[in-house]
Amino acid sequence: MKLVKSIVRPNKVDEVRAALEKLNLGGMTVTEVRGHGRQKGHTAIYRGKEYDVTLLPKVSIEVVVTDSAVEDVIQAITRAARTGEIGDGRVFVLPVEQSYNIRTGERDAS
Amino acid sequence: MPPLGQSQGSGVPADRTKGQLASRLAAIRREYVLEARQGRGGREMQSRYAAEMDAIVRELVEGARGLTSQPLSVAALGGYGRRTLCLHSDVDLLIVFERGIDRAEARFVNAVLQPLWDLQLVVGHHVRELPDFDQVDPENTEFIMALIDAHPIAGDEAVFDAVRAHGGRLNTGLRDALTDSLLLLVDQRHAQFNGTLYQLEPDIKNAPGGLRDIAAARYLRALDPEAFEAEAAKAIDALQDAEQFLLRVRSVLHAEAGRDANILTHELQEKVADALACDGDTSRRRVETLMGAYFRHARATARALSRTQRAVRPSAGPAVQRLVGRQFEIARDGIRFVDAAAAASRPSLWLEIFRLAIAHGCAVSEQALDCIEQNVGNYGPDDFAGTEAERHQLRNLFYPRPGLYARLSEMHDCGLLNRILPEFAGVHGRVVRDFYHRYTVDEHTLLTVRGLESLWHPATASRKRFGGLLQELRAPELLTLALILHDIGKVEDTNHAQESVRIARTALDRLDLPEDARHTVDFLVGHHLEMSNVAFRRDLDDPHVVERFAHVVGTEEQLKMLCLLTLVDVEAVSSNTLTPWKEELLWRLYVDTYNHLTLGYADELVRHDPAGLAVVISGRPDDISETELTQFLSGLPRRYLALFGLASIYRHVRLARGIHRDEVHTVLENHDDVWELTIVTLDKPFLFSNVAGVLSYFGMDIHRGQAMTTPEGLVLDMFEFADAEAFLRQNPGASAEICRMLDRVVAGRIDVPTLLRGRERSMLYRRRGGEPPRIHFDNEHSRKYSIVEIVADDAPGLLYRISRAVSEQGCDLDLALIGTEGRKAIDVLHVTKAGRKLAESERIALMDGLERVLETPDETG
């Protein structure tokens, strides 16, 4: 199993979600986050005064999937979240050792 | 021999007895479920269930009695003690031994509790020795309160009486501490629900207006019975109805959920509505009837608790009543009518009492609220907005300031708000089911007002920037009005923003707002979803997104209002909807749009807005030809159409007719305390600074202004100013004198620096200290113009000095946005030199010149 964690633009969350739902993955976690990638945000000016927007609002979407589904998931996310501009985000893939259902206590098949 | 039905020596009942107890419990529970589903799970059923539980406990106590020789008492606590034991509620027991607890007593406790646990009951048990009660721990408020409800079940009467006697021996200091502690617990509990009872899926036990509030009101009264006037005591008695209703509802929740469920979820609302036989031909109508009844009872409970709180802890106001005018007096429970009988037939006093309550920072008393509630049905909306004075009074009431939410809530609760704005009555208690709204539509609306008033004292640095916008608004009362109206279209499940605009029409007709104010409210109501939609769902890095949104909002004033409306609207959805993340997105959209409106607007001319141009052409009066109109407009920035209504545009066209070099056409008008000067002329060096200089010469305090120059050299300037030295007010011919002076200045017959030389020195002495001025140069935002943005402490003649410095550098001041916010002047100047943006050396020279005049105002003359 793998945890696929993506950081995308806030306005792309609906498209990414729709693309992932088409893959019938079971569940996902969506979190409002702030951060910066290589572009390190930018400085905005309001009434002649600079203010820092280094930490840009982004959305983190996490899904846990079987190893065989990872490629499809990455493709679905990148296709849905890409604009071609700086700030499109990142996808990370992490190994998941074990997974349990809290209600039943059952361990999920890896 | 062990007692009958018990296993030898343990005191634990034999299996046969356990079986009998289980059957007995199952039988009463079956009966309970049947009764609950018929809507009869109220006080009587719960009392019967408590009595049956008593019998079970009593049997166990009697069975285990032989295990200890000590006198003891077993009593029911909390709701069980009050004889309102709900189907799956905890069975709270107090077991008290007269002396100490040893192994024999432990066996006794085990013999009583074990079978109860085996029956799958959730038992809350307190085991104490009688001497424990000699020292009451005031920290343990909930236990002490539970003792007030203690009801003996089994054991020795003398032990129970001794426990009770301890309750009666609470000294005054302890009672005070308990009262404080209880009030704090109530506040903490309410805070979990954002302090409002109007929850869409209420927790009928813990939420404001729920069963715990009823218990709290009774506890407070029990702790301090002398503090209660007959009036407040009566209110507590009125809680009987509310309690009976909530008990019936709770019984259905327990019966349907099969556990201790207290949240009236959407799903269970339908079941409860059926069980309580609520009126309605559809399931939805029945639910609305149920929730209407729920909110009525919850409101009565909340009001009774609030009365009780005021009775035990009166506000720090004067003990002696104080007269306010001839009609009102301020007492400890708030502002009252001096003569309630007379006030009953004078609705103008009703609005006044709310205004005074806000002004004096106090509540409206129960006496006044009762008086209004009893008589409000005799009056209609025209009785509150029939005359200009009444409409003015109403508008002023909506000015957002601390206390407005609380007073509007009181107005709503006593029925006055719905009388004044019957359009709002359509969403009274309105339930809209979705995944995110937590409150009824009317309460959500009032909570937006609470959010707005809280911006006067922002809790966080992030919120402070929004607070700054509120302070800058010219007519913030219009924002409150728009908030009250923004969701009134939610009576139907359609596009509610447009429906709200439609319904609001009658309200706005009745309030007879000036055209521009009405347009603002219409805009805000109709577009109230727009900004959150763009901020949270569109790509803010895309300049076209910002550009399109800027066209929708049109002006900075509307942008600020829509931004604040969006902020408080999102915040009032539920306590966790407005995250710092969303605040940041909203602020970013605000800043980008503000910059577009103030810095980038000059690149877009009216000729690029065929739709806007068509509207102006189609409405033109007969004396203006299409050609004349198009020629006038085409070189002006597109923003011009957003700033002015059609009537003003046509007036400007007429003003521009037949203008020649060195001539100026002027109109000087007065609106309330504000004067407005409009001039049309042809461009020439130092023109803008000369006009600003003339206004300064006559002592005018310029608040805001617009200066626009078309590529063809036509200049249209508007200045809004205050007659700071009363020159216009005190001199009948002053208006004409200013216009004559402008004629001569534009014609070049008067030199403005010479004219002002005498005044410059006095300006220097009146200069206010404060933050250092900020000058920002921007060569990026506009394709055609260099932009200079200046933020400085406002001072007489400031605009004259700034604009003159620009001209002295050989720059053309093509467009200008002049604003003041409080004591701060915010000027945005679009400049060019020889028709081009400024080069670096020119920028340095201009900045030097500006810095000099901002630091040393006397050198410019």
Index terms:
heterodimer; A: 110 residues; alpha+beta; Alpha-Beta Plaits; 4-stranded antiparallel sheet; two-stranded antiparallel ribbon; 2 helices; 19% helix; elongated; B: 861 residues; Beta Polymerase, domain 2; Four Helix Bundle (Hemerythrin (Met), subunit A); 4 domains; 8-stranded antiparallel sheet; 4-stranded mixed sheet; 39 helices; 54% helix; disordered N terminus; disordered C terminus
> What is the distance, rounded to the nearest whole angstrom, between the alpha carbons of the first and last residues of chain A?
6 Å
- Taking pLDDT < 50 over at least 5 consecutive residues as the criterion, the unreliable ranges of chain A are none
Domains counted in the coordinates of chain B: how many? 4
Mean pLDDT of chain B: 88
Q: How many strands appear in the DSSP assignment of chain B?
A: 15
Level of helix content of chain B? Answer: 40-55%
Coarse structural class of chain A = alpha+beta
Describe this structure in words.
The complex is a heterodimer of chains A (110) and B (861). Chain A contains two helices and six strands. Chain A has 110 residues and is of the alpha+beta class. Chain A has a single domain, classed as Alpha-Beta Plaits. In chain A, helix 1 (13-21) runs antiparallel to helix 2 (70-81). The model of chain A has no long low-confidence stretch (mean pLDDT 88). In chain B, 54% of the residues lie in helices and 12% in strands. Chain B contains 39 helices and 15 strands. Chain B has an eight-stranded antiparallel sheet with strand order 8-9-11-10-14-15-13-12, sandwiched between helices. The N and C termini of chain B lie far apart (118 Å). The chains are: A alpha+beta (110), B alpha+beta (861). Chains A and B meet through strand 2, strand 3 and strand 4 of A and helix 29, strand 12 and strand 13 of B.
